[in-house]
Amino acid sequence: MNATETLRTIPLTAALICITLVPGRADEPAQGETRLLPLGDNVSLELVYVPPGEFLMGSTPEEKAWATGIEGGAQPGTERESYEGEPRRMSVKSGFWMARTEVTFGQFRQFANDSGYVTDAEQPGGMTQVFDHQWDRYFYSDRIVHPWKSVADKSWRDPGFGFPMQDQFPVVCVSYRDMQAFCRWLTDRERTAGRLNDTLEIRLPTESEWAYACRGGSSESHYFWWGDDLMEGQGRLNISAVDFLPGRETVWPLANAPWSDGYAFLSPVDHYGERGRNGFGLADMCGSVWEFVLDDFDPTGGHEQLHYQDSQKLTVTRPVCRGGNYFDVPGNARCAVRLGITNVAYSDSRDGFRICLGSPQQTVPVLR
């Protein structure tokens, strides 16, 4: 039984006892202390306490060179690695609670069932990016063909993998606006139950909170949360690896991790257990699915404070995503990797999210 399955079997009464929050208490929670958020119907979500601290945002020239080299496999000659910026020391001044795993399909379904929420991809005219099952190669004689396409008939309910979603899979095909709706629902639920006051809210992490949490407490600039050696990642993360695509005798082309992680697409959250958790006890921080954060994308690098497209209006038009995904080559699934999403309504079968519980942070999603 994995961690998620354990959470789903905890009686609701026990979860209610575990989640009683006392904001501003004199004795700060200990690093790694856990709490459960009950979502109803014996579904719950586990949080882990992350204390304040310092970390390095960005990546060294050597790391960028490795990412685009033979082992890293990222495409050289693009601007992508420049988005990471050079290493610079930042601090997270307040502790926060972060979900041990990405929000799962089962947890998001509980939200949708309880609230009646309809995601952006499910709206009239909505679209989402999914795997193109007709795709068979990258390079034809006259063009490059990528394995993803935009469709109108898929969503988080059926992301088009060709097999049913499992409750323990991370939810995908949800937008920045959908993620924020989930967080508002859960915040309102906790406040209505008297377990949360106005000094805290459930939300997406800021980029600096995410980057700090990903490194697991390390103050050094490493490629991955465990260090710089890719081979130490075996049994720790789900990325492009030596796994056959469903119904085929081929694996993802280009650079692969030189082992099988057991899944060509999604793996269950926390599938790798203790070995897949970093120094803060957080699972799947590299690979698995892209994780959205609150900030608007700045191509020159991430910020210590929440970054807006317009700081006067608190607007976000291009959310940041971090951490890579199951399809990415090793060089694109490092702690420092960051990209800007097309817009706040965009969704993709490689994208998901992880929540945190911390001080309120307001953003205004703007669709352009």
List the helices and strands and how they pair.
Elements: H1 3-8, H2 12-18, E1 34-40, E2 43-50, E3 53-57, H3 61-67, E4 88-92, E5 96-99, H4 105-115, E6 128-131, E7 148-151, H5 176-192, E8 201-203, H6 207-214, E9 290-296, E10 315-316, E11 319-322, E12 338-340, E13 351-352, E14 356-358, E15 364-365
Parallel strand pairs: 9-13, 10-15
Antiparallel strand pairs: 1-2, 2-5, 3-4, 5-14, 6-7, 8-14, 9-11, 11-12
Tag the structure with descriptive keywords.
15% helix; five-stranded antiparallel β-sheet; 6 helices; four-stranded mixed β-sheet; disordered N terminus; 17% strand; paralog of FGE (formylglycine-generating enzyme); 368 residues; alpha+beta; 15 strands
Please, could you describe this protein's structure?
There is one protein chain. The protein is of the alpha+beta class and 368 residues long. The protein has one domain (3-365): Alpha-Beta Complex (paralog of FGE (formylglycine-generating enzyme)), CATH 3.90.1580.10. The chain has six helices and 15 strands. The chain has helices at residues 3-8, 12-18, 61-67, 105-115, 176-192, 207-214; strands at residues 34-40, 43-50, 53-57, 88-92, 96-99, 128-131, 148-151, 201-203, 290-296, 315-316, 319-322, 338-340, 351-352, 356-358, 364-365. The strands form five sheets. It has a five-stranded antiparallel sheet with strand order 1-2-5-14-8. A hairpin with a 2-residue loop joins strand 1 and strand 2. It is globular and about 60 Å long. Residues 1-24 have low confidence and may be disordered.
